[in-house]
Amino acid sequence: MIKKISITIVFTLLLVIAIVTYLSIVGIETTKFNNFIKNELKSYNNKTDINLKKVKLKLDLNNFYIKISTLDPTLSFNSTEFPLEKLIFSIAIKSYLKGEFGIKKASIETKYNKIINFLNIYQSETGSVQFFILSKILKKGDVKFMVDFEFDEKGKIKNNYIINGKIKDTKIKDYNFNHLNYDFKIKKNNYEISDASFNFNNINFNSKKISIIKNNEAHQVIGEIDNKDGLLNDKILKIFSKNYANYLDIENSKITSNFSFSFDITKDFKIKKLKTHSRVKIDKLGYLSKYKKIKKYLPDYQDQIYFNDSLIEISYFKNNYKFEGSTNYSLKDLSDKLNFKISKLENLYNFNFDINFDKNKILIEELNYLKKINNKSNLKLVGKYIKNKQLTFQNIKFVEKKNNLQIVNLFLNKNFKIIKFDKIVNNYLTKDKIKNDYSIVFKNPNYEITGVTYDGIKLLDNMFESSDDNVFNIFENLNSKIKIDLKQVYIDKINYLEELKALAEFKNNKIKNLVLDSVFPNKKDLKLTINTTENGEKVTTVFTNFPKPIVNRYKFIKGFEKGTLDFQSIKKNDVSRSVLKIFNFKVKEVPALAKLLSLASLQGIADTLTGEGIRFTDFEMIFSNEAKLMTIDEIYAIGPAISILSEGYIEKDSLISLRGTLVPARTINRTISSIPLLGDILVGKKVGEGVFGVSFKVKGPPKNLKTTVNPIKTLTPRFITRTLEKIKKN
User: pTM of the predicted model, to two decimals?
Assistant: First the structure.
C-alpha cells in the first residue's frame, strides 16, 4: 500500500513537473484569459478595449508570474483602432487568485500606425498644449514601437518604462520638412532619436543622435545634424533673406555641413539657451554688388566676387557668435586666399582678416599706390567694432615685396570717419616710382610727420583744387596741429624739395594756418603760408625763385625756365580768387607759338632758333576756382619780343579752353606810336597793346590740345575798346 502511494506521489510530482516545465518552456494556447485581459485594461482606462485571438500562456517561475502573449491583436481607444504586432502580459498568480489587479508587466509591439492618432490620444488624456500644436502641424507620418511597462499594485504604470520605435515618411506642414525617418527610445524624462534622416527645403540631412531630457519645466535638446553635397536653393536662403538674389549667385552651389546644437524648449514651445556649432563647406558662391568703393580699390572688380572651397566654423550662444574660416576668392578669374575670424559678444564685434592679393590688382589713390597683378602681397586687419558707435583697427598691415604699410590703432566713427590714429608707417614705392618713407605719430592732441622721402604729388593736386573734397575730409573732426619734418618731398616726378619743415593748424578738417619753408636742390627757396582771417577768408601765399616745377602744372605752358613766382589766393565759401605773378622768365612754347612768331616778331624767331625760348619780363594770371572748374579772367604776359593777352577756363582732367591775342614786338608799336595823334588812337600808351595782333585758340583734353590761329585779324578787341574810350573822352 505504501508502495502504491509512493508511486502515485512520485508520478503526480513528475506530472506536475512535466506540466510546469511544459508551461514554462512551450506554454499552451487558450482563450480563457481574453476576458480577463479586457477587464484589466478597462480597469486601467475604460476607453480602452482590445480584440484578442488565442493567447499563449507560459509560466515565469522566477517571478511566479503567468506570462500571456498574443499575435496580431487590435487595440482600440475611443473607437480608434491600432493594429499590434504582438502583446505580452505578465500576471502575478497571487494577485490573480485574490481577484486584485494582476498585470505586473506588459510588452506591446505595434505595427505601423498613423502618428497623429497617438498624438490625439495623448493630448486628449493629458491636455498637453505641445502635443495639440504638434498634431496640427503634422501632415503625415507613421510610427511603430515596442513598449515595456511595469504596473504597481493599484494598476498605475511605473516610471521605469522603455519605449523603442521607428518613425517613417513624416511631413510637417509649412516647414518644408519631408521624408522624416528616425529610430527613437523613450524613458521617463529622457528621449533619444537615432539614425535620423529628413529632407529640409530640398536638402537631405542626417543625424546619428538627438537627446531630449526633461529638466524642471523645460526639455533640453542636444544633438547633431549633417548633410553632404546639398544644392543651395531659394527655399534655404529665403529663410535668411528674401532679397538674397540681389547679391548672391548660388547656381550649382553645393553645401556640406555638420551642425551640433543644444537648447531648451519651454511648455509654450519657446526656444531658450540656444547653443550651436556648425562646420560648413560651400564649393562655390557668388557675391554680387555694384558698390563703387570696391572697384575703387580693386580695379578688376566687375560687380561680382566668387568664393570657392569656403570652409566656415560658426559658434552661437545667447545672441553671440563666432565665425572662423577660409576661402579662395576670385575677381575676373584671378583667385587669392582669404582667412577670417569674426566674433560677437553683446555689442562688441572682434575681427581678424588675413587676405592675400597675389594675383589681383590693388589701387589706393589716397596713397598714390598701385599693386600690379601677380605680385605676392598680404593684408592683415585686426580690430573691433562697438555697434552704432566706433570701429577700431588695432593693426592694419600690408606687405608687398619691399613695400610696407602699417596703421596702429585707427579709430573710426559710425560713419567711417577717422577719429584718430596712433601711428602710420609707410615704406613703399608710389605709382610715380617715388619711394615713400615716412611715419605719422600721434602726440596728443597733435601729430608729427617725419621721414626721409615723401611723394607729395597727390597732396599738391588737392591743394591746387578749390574744393575741400580732399584727403583731410576723411577725418571726423580734425582739430590738431601737424608738425612736418621731411628730408625730401617730391612735387612732381622729377622735382623735389629738401629739408621741408612746416607747421599746420587744422580746424574742422580745414587748414586754418600754415607756415612752410623749404629749398630746392639748387638752393632756391620755397615759402608757403596760409592764414585764416576773422571773417573766414583763407589767404594763401606762395613765393619761390624757382617757379618752374609749379608753373609746369599748367599743361598749356611748356618749356618754362628761370623766373620768380609770387602767388596769392583768397578763398571763402569754397570759392577762391587768385593772382599768379611771375617775373623775368622764358618759355619755349605757348600755344603754337612757333606758328604765331612768323607773323609776330623777328626777335621771337631769333630767340626760338637759338633754343633760348621767348623772354618775358612780367606775367600775371587772374583766375578763380570753384569745384572742378578754373575760370581764367586774364593771362597777361609782356616781353621784349611779344606780349600775350588771353582768357578761358579749365575743367579738371577733361578740358582746357583758352583764347587770346598775341601782339608783336614793341619796336613795331613804337614806330606807329610816334605818329602824332594816330599813334595814341591805334596803339595806346599801355605797354603790350598794339594794332598788329594775331588771334589764337587752344582747346582740348590736357594730353591732346589743339591750337588754331587767325593771322588776318589785326585789331584786338581790347585795342578797339580802348580806342573808343579815348575817342569818347576826347
Answer: 0.72
